[in-house]
Design brief:
The chain contains 7 helices and 12 strands. By secondary structure, the chain is α/β, with parallel strands linked by helices.
Length: 233
């Protein structure tokens, strides 16, 4: 992956990061996990909702397996397997509490999007870990040019938030509003540090990329907390 531009990646501090939104959360989460692990950090990956159980050997069924992966400079994925779905849910609280004390970095996928590039959370979402200090919102730039009904999970909630119909075509202003609204991607963030990954930026022309950046910054987002990420980074 390309170097993560965010300050928290190299500050040497312990972080618990929750990822929300759509458009590639899982990919970003695992890329960050692999990059930190390569730097000899003890990285713990989990979900507070559901994720697919990884097939690459990074799932750790117990504490011994976690430590074995860390010794190999790999990240460890923990959770409770659902045998009928092949997915993981949140780990037992006692397991998490014990391991989080030993981890250098914790990454948690805190909501799902069913592969939609953007979303508006339901009443019960996202499930942000109480001890998290950073929330990382992800949105896929393939949302632009498609309708809310096509590209947004829970399009009616998005339509209500934006005061439009679900057939409305998503433009940069609409996507910015979803990313910055406390009913959208900023829901439950509170006082935590908030960062945005604009994913699949290679799909955009240079002017479109800069428009997205400008709109976010103009609305008060710190430019240093925006990552214009391309596929394959």
């Amino acid at each position: 992956m390309a170097h993560c531009p965010f300050d928290f990646f190299t500050d040497g501090k312990k972080h618990t990061i929750c990822l929300v939104g759509g458009g590639g959360k899982t990919t970003v989460m695992y890329e960050l996990a692999a990059a930190w692990a390569a730097c000899r950090c003890k990285v713990l990956v989990l979900t507070s909702t559901h994720i697919l159980q990884p097939a690459d050997g990074s799932f750790a069924a117990d504490a011994a397996a976690v430590h074995n992966l860390w010794q190999q400079r790999r990240y460890a994925v923990i959770g409770t397997p659902e045998l009928d779905t092949g997915k993981l849910t949140a780990p037992l609280q006692s397991v998490y509490e014990a391991l989080k004390l030993q981890a250098d970095v914790i990454l948690c996928e805190a909501d799902g999007s069913r592969h939609h590039p953007c979303k508006v959370p339901a009443e019960y979402e996202p499930v942000i870990l109480p001890d998290s200090d950073i929330v990382l919102a992800v949105a896929g730039m393939d949302a632009l040019g498609n309708s809310l009904a096509q590209a947004c999970q829970r399009p009616q909630l998005a339509a209500d938030l934006l005061d439009c119909s679900a057939d409305k075509i998503i433009d940069a202003q609409m996507l910015t509003a979803l990313l910055l609204s406390e009913q959208g991607a900023r829901k439950n963030v509170g006082t935590r540090a908030y960062y945005i990954v604009l994913n699949k930026c290679d799909l955009l022309k240079a002017l479109q990329r800069e428009e997205m950046r400008w709109l976010l910054v103009s609305a008060g987002m710190d430019e240093r907390r925006i990552w214009l990420r391309e596929r394959g980074e």
